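Ticket #4471: structure output looks truncated?

Reporter: J.K.
Steps to reproduce: submitted the chain below (289 residues) through the standard prediction queue, then opened the result file.
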Amino acid sequence: MLDWLITPFSYAFMQRAFLASVIVGVLCAIVGCYVVLRSMAFLGDALAHAVLPGIAIAYLVGGNLTVGALITAIIVSLGIGFISKQGNIREDTAIGILFTAALSLGIVLISSIRSYAVDLSHILFGDVLGVSTEDLVLTASIAIIILVLVLVLYRRFLVVLFDPILAVTQRLRVGLLNTVLLVLLAVTIVISLQTVGVALVAAMLVTPPATAYLLTRRLPAMMLLSACFGAFSSLVGLYASFYANVASGAAIVLTATIVFTLVYLFSPKKGILTSLFQRWASRQPEKSK
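Returned output as attached by the reporter:
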């Protein structure tokens, strides 16, 4: 059993993959708590796909794909914040407009690259086994910056999230805070692309926080549990990927989904099967009478 656990770590690329996966799993899980509580799951998926034009342009000019994706994600998130802040267009409508526009532009640009199916496929499905030392340092550095900002702005985000009216009375800059949250979400998505890919990053933003939400309603506890679920899913998913020879990003997401399903069924307070059992148990004394 010990050999089974240690063997993957004998390879340098697996060591980097484990570190990158845990960093991304924890980061997505914490930022994803705001996504779940604000019902922004569609926004996360939209931003994940909206980075395609930046990736394509960076590929065409021979630049860094991550930098290209990051620039596009920030532009789209700022655009969503600007349009929705005017009051004429709702946020979900602005998301739909800019998401489809960016995705269409990305498809047009990618379709002009003859070798795009081979060279850019890892963007869609992730390539955590290809994480270099430089990628790992960049991911860890950006993750630390985002987590520090989340900690510093925690109380402001909390007020804006749960009581926008109180935020206005306290003279908090609600529009600016919403924009900062969008940018943090966009950056989180970009640095997660190599681990789980465009197609699956939204799942890591939603599934661990949703699992934690079934167990607690307090945001600090939810963030802590969500981070644990994200890290656990990343570790188990990579082990499954290594030994079953399957796509790592998909294995990580499926692991997170299995954890969610178990909690959904057996959670002490909210579990479906737990509730059914409690109802059945409460009826037994009545029948015996």
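Triage note (M.O.): checked the attachment and the full token line is present. The radius of gyration is 21 Å.
Status: closed, working as intended.
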